[in-house]
Amino acid sequence: MVAKTLSGALPDLLDNLEGWNPEFENFNIPPTADIPVVVRRIDAQSGEAQRAIDWVHWGFVPAWKKSFTERPQPVNARIEGAATNGMFREAFRHRHCIVPASGYYEWSVNAAGEKQPYYIRGLAGHGLAMAGLFEDWSDVASPAGEASAVRRTATIITRSALGDIESIHDRMPVLLGPDDYDTWLAGEFASAAEALSFLETASNATARSFEAYAVGTAVGNVRNNGPQLIDALSA
After folding, report:
1. Which end of the chain has the lower number of beta carbons within 10 A, N or C?
2. Is the overall model pTM greater than 0.90, yes or no?
3. CATH no. for residue 144?
4. Is residue 158, in this structure, part of any structural domain at all?
5. Contact call for residues 133 and 97 (beta carbons, < 8 A)
């Protein structure tokens, strides 16, 4: 799953956010690249919660990892195990984010084993707000007397496919609607079960809000970029 973020796709989420660059475009974002995510911050002066943009490493690195380059660095966290898997458990409880995207690519494989990429986006060109988790990794090997270098990383939560996506692929991102943004970012759930129930309800509410169409295979090479990648294949 390769996310693609584009300016103007989610005005209800991104407009006027601290740290957001409205000119940002990338049509083929690979794992380990820096991506924008929406997080919740407490304003130091007012004490009020506000949304803001962080630019993070796409590929989850748990805080307990000794090396930042150690693998795996999962770009996806399966919802079925996110609350209990040791890699994600603490982030699922305390560190939520939203990964904004105009859409994403998914590959469908037919009975003959032939692969066809599809571009999946919200109806009428609307963007997608993907539920995510973030983690701050600190370099314990920093020289004595110096502050530890901190890198923020993130992953996208996925689930079994819903609606029309099922015919393309068996997995999809967990998506949020505008009424879900602040609840997910705050993360004030009584239990992991309550958080899972929230995500199930939110993603089911968006199950019919997609459109998907076949695109060229150039998206399979991350060196390719540009708006031509999301052009629909001619019939």
Report:
1. C
2. yes
3. 3.90.1680.10
4. yes
5. yes
Per-residue 3-state assignment (H helix, E strand, C coil) for the chain? CEEEEECCCCHHHHCCCECCCCCCEECCCCCCCEEEEEEEEECCCCCCEEEEEEEEEECCCCCCCCCCCCCCCCCEEEHHHHCCCCCCHHHHHHCEEEEEECEEEEEEECCCCCEEEEEEEEHHHCCEEEEEEEEEEECCCCCCCCCCCEEEEEEEEEEECCHHHHHCCCEEECECCHHHHHHHHHCCCCCHHHHHHHHHHHHHHCCCCEEEEEECHHHHCCCCCCHHHHCECCC
Residue numbers in the chain where pLDDT is lower than 70: 1-8, 141-148, 235
Burial environment of residue 89 by CB neighbours within 10 A (0 to 12, 13 to 18, 19 or more): middle
Q: Is residue 235 part of a domain?
A: no
Q: For 15-38, write each residue's pLDDT tens digit.
A: 889 899 888 889 999 999 999 999
**AA identity, residue 141:** A
pLDDT computed for residue 8 by the predictor: 63
Residue 148: its pLDDT value, please? Answer: 64
